[in-house]
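Sequence in, structure out.
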Amino acid sequence: MIPDRKEVSISLDRKPVLGYYVAPTRDGLVFGVIDPALGDVHLTIMWKDGKLGSHITDTRKVEKHEKYPWDTHINAKLLVPKVERIASRWVRPKRYRPARKAWVLPRRL
C-alpha cells in the first residue's frame, strides 16, 4: 500500500458499493477504483519532460499493450490557451499587484 494513499468507500446498508483512492506519485497523481471484480485499475496523471501525460493501467493484464489500454501526452503550450479560452467564460483576470493577476469567479458562481 502507498503511504500517502487516501481511500474513500461508499456503502449502502453497510455493504460497500463503490470505492476509489487517490495517491501522489513522483511525477503526478494516481486515481484508482476499489472493486474486487476489477482488480487494480487506475488512471495516472503526470507532468514529465514538459508534457502532461496520462495513462490507464489494468494490472490484471499480462501483455504490455493490454496493460495500458489508453495512453496520451499533451504539450502544455497547446493545452494552456485552450483551457484559458474555456475558463475565461467563468473567470475574469483582476490585477492585485502591478505584475500579478488573479483569476476571480463572478458572484453568480
